[in-house]
């Protein structure tokens, strides 16, 4: 039976897990509280190096940016670059390595624990080799059967943001509020499904600036992993410098934005002038063809709220293309060497 046809009422595991973000935020808060109880007096140092693979690498970029945004110095590298090419990167003099892995068993992540003589903080969804071999273990109880990372990604983000706020003496975010707001964002599922039904785009460009750029990168990865569909991600205004030439009547441009300003409206109009359609995801529309409102939370607090939108978009594109997002071709849940 074709992979995408499910029994009446049956739902792909991947969709179920995307929808679990509200509880994931609460689990993330619990993970943060358990971490603080276990490592009494722990504070993050100012200079932190972050690493991970695939989605966990893009998550490491988010954590590095959140650290820098709050006055620290966060640097992110994919594990394999940290292992084999770190001399080309300004990793500086980090006082902690934060290694991220949903499974906690990815070979490259485990190997990074031996690279630098600094304490390690592991973030995983399972008791795992990563957590066993880290000095500090942040176990976020968001296990996923899906091959691709879904609600665990924003849940890990939130748990770390709370640790960051605590370490810098900033007020903690309100987990219940963010959980409720993520439920609000998930209410856009039917609308997102409608976009996929209405517009059979041939290619998709994801745009994001600052902390939303790694979200654009993750969106592009989700589209490739689940829908086996080529996509690209750029820093928002960079796209005008040549990359935009690919955009035409078969293109969907997904503009991830916090507070739009005139350049966002101009960019939207420019892409529409090329025949493309634009989906704006943010606090206000930019004159786009489609719009998903993100609740009014300052970034970086509200960053987690963008993830379900891009995950749902890729999920429904995968189903439309006749693929089973629960078992993407050529992929495994845990990459081993
Ligand atoms: C990392 C990862 C995933 C990707 C795929 C293969 O896994 O690259 O990000 O979606 O599942 O593995 P992990 O180290 O976060 O468990």
Contiguous helical run count: 12
Beta percentage is 15-25%
CATH superfamily of the largest domain: Glucose-6-phosphate isomerase like protein, domain 1
- What is the count of distinct domains? 2
Classify the secondary structure makeup into a structural class: alpha/beta
- Reading off the top of the CATH hierarchy, the class of the largest domain is best stated as Alpha Beta
Strand order of the largest sheet: 2-1-3-4-5
Uncertain runs with pLDDT below 50, 5 residues or more? none
Ligand species: 1-O-phosphono-beta-D-fructopyranose
CATH architecture of the largest domain: 3-Layer(aba) Sandwich
Radius of gyration: 19 Å
Percentage of residues assigned to helices:
25-40%
Keywords:
globular, binds 1-O-phosphono-beta-D-fructopyranose, five-stranded parallel β-sheet, Rossmann fold, 337 residues, alpha/beta, 2 domains
Describe this structure in words.
The chain folds into 2 domains: 13-174, Glucose-6-phosphate isomerase like protein, domain 1 (Rossmann fold), CATH 3.40.50.10490; 187-320, Glucose-6-phosphate isomerase like protein, domain 1 (Rossmann fold), CATH 3.40.50.10490. It has 337 residues and is of the alpha/beta class. The strands form 2 sheets. The protein has a 5-stranded parallel beta sheet. It has helices spanning 13-18, 21-38, 55-69, 79-84, 107-112, 129-132, 152-167, 175-186, 189-198, 213-227, 262-273, 307-320, and strands spanning 47-52, 73-78, 96-100, 120-124, 136-139, 203-208, 231-235, 251-256, 277-282, 290-293. It is globular, with a radius of gyration of 19 Å. The chain is 40% helix and 16% strand. The protein is built from 12 helices and 10 strands. α5 links the parallel β3 and β4. Bound molecules: 1-O-phosphono-beta-D-fructopyranose (F1P).
């Amino acid at each position: 039976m074709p992979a995408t046809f499910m029994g009446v009422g049956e739902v792909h595991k991947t969709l179920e897990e995307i929808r679990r973000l509200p509880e994931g935020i609460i689990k993330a808060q619990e993970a943060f509280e358990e971490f603080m109880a276990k490592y009494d007096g722990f504070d993050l140092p100012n200079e932190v190096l972050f690493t991970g693979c695939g989605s966990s690498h893009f998550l490491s970029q988010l954590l590095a940016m959140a650290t820098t945004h709050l006055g620290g110095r966060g640097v992110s590298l994919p594990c394999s670059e940290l292992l084999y090419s770190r001399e080309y990167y300004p990793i500086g003099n980090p006082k902690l390595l934060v290694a991220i892995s949903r499974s906690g068993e990815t070979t490259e992540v485990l190997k990074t624990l031996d690279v630098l003589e600094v304490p390690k903080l592991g973030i995983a969804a399972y008791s795992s080799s990563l957590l066993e071999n880290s000095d500090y273990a942040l176990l976020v109880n968001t296990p996923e059967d899906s091959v691709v990372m879904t609600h665990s990604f924003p849940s890990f983000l939130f748990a770390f943001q709370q640790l960051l706020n605590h370490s810098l003496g900033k007020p903690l975010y309100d987990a219940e509020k963010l959980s409720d707001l993520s439920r609000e964002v998930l209410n856009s599922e039917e609308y997102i499904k409608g976009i996929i039904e209405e517009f059979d785009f041939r290619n998709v460009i994801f745009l994001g600036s600052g902390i939303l750029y790694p979200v654009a990168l993750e969106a592009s990865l989700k589209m490739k992993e689940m829908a086996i569909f080529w996509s690209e991600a750029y820093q928002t205004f960079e796209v005008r410098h040549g990359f935009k030439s690919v955009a035409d009547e078969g293109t969907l441009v997904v503009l991830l934005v916090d507070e739009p300003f005139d350049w966002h409206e101009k960019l939207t109009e420019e892409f529409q002038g090329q025949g493309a359609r634009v989906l704006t995801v943010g606090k206000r529309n930019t004159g786009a063809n489609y719009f998903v409102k993100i609740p009014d939370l300052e970034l970086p607090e509200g960053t987690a709220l963008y993830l379900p939108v891009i995950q749902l978009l890729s999920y429904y594109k995968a189903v439309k293309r006749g693929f089973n997002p629960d078992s993407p071709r050529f992929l495994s849940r845990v990459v081993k060497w």
